[in-house]
Specification:
Layout (H helix, E strand, L loop, with lengths): L1 H17 L1 E6 L4 E4 L12 E5 L7 E6 L2 E2 L12 E2 L4 H4 L4 E4 L7 E8 L4 E12 L28 H20 L5 H22 L1
Parallel strand pairs: 1-9
Antiparallel strand pairs: 2-7, 3-4, 3-8, 4-5, 6-7, 8-9
């Protein structure tokens, strides 16, 4: 009965591990791909992270207390790491720095003693393009008080007519003044005519 319970527990853990999806935005400092093992105790184990769609498929290898990345795919050169005590605490999680869109894929975490290899988990990594907020410039309109541009037109024709009559009366008065010379009357008439011309020009 105890054996059956342990078997069911292992099946549930395995199914959960295979269903892990990790999402990260491109440009992040790093992303952690989880992988823990508390059941398979192997002597001198080697932990391997691989991607089957790559050639070579090796992403990271930890043997004993050191990394062995001689066969590592160049896509991951200098960007992968594991805890120094990973094999001692059975935490084989992989840290991938500066993830890019090309890093998206399914990563397999396996453990081997040279004779037997066991697949611990498959992690699906989804690296998303960073979300940009494209702002649109909306000009603000400041409502100013309306400027009164209305033009008032005045009809000054009655004033012109009145001035003309006054000037004619002025000329006639000059002529009636006794003792005034014709030159004086002429000068007065000339001045009055000039005033009329100026007023008419302003009106036009």
């Amino acid at each position: 009965m105890k054996t059956l319970v342990v078997f069911l527990l292992l099946v549930n853990v395995s199914q959960h591990a295979l269903g892990v999806v990790v999402e990260v935005n491109e440009g992040a400092m790093s992303v952690l791909l989880p992988c823990q093992n508390m059941w398979f105790r192997l002597e001198n184990p080697t932990v391997m992270w691989t991607r089957s769609d790559l050639n070579p498929k090796s992403v990271h290898v930890r043997q004993d207390k050191t990394d062995d990345n001689r066969g590592q795919n160049q896509l991951y050169s200098g960007r992968t790491s594991m805890r120094p005590d990973a094999l001692a605490i059975f935490d084989f999680s992989l840290t991938l720095s500066k993830p890019t869109i090309a890093d998206s894929g399914i990563y397999t975490c396996s453990i081997s003693d040279g004779r037997e290899e066991r697949r611990l988990s498959d992690i699906q990594l989804q690296v998303k393009a960073p979300q940009h907020n494209y702002g649109f410039f909306v000009p603000t309109l400041e409502i100013l008080e309306p400027i009164n541009t209305s033009v008032r037109l005045y009809d000054i024709s009655p004033d012109i007519d009145r001035l003309k009559k006054q000037i004619k009366e002025f000329e006639r008065s000059w002529k009636e003044i006794s003792g005034c010379s014709k030159a004086t009357v002429a000068v007065g008439g000339f001045i009055a005519t000039l005033i009329v011309i100026i007023l008419e020009f302003m009106y036009i």
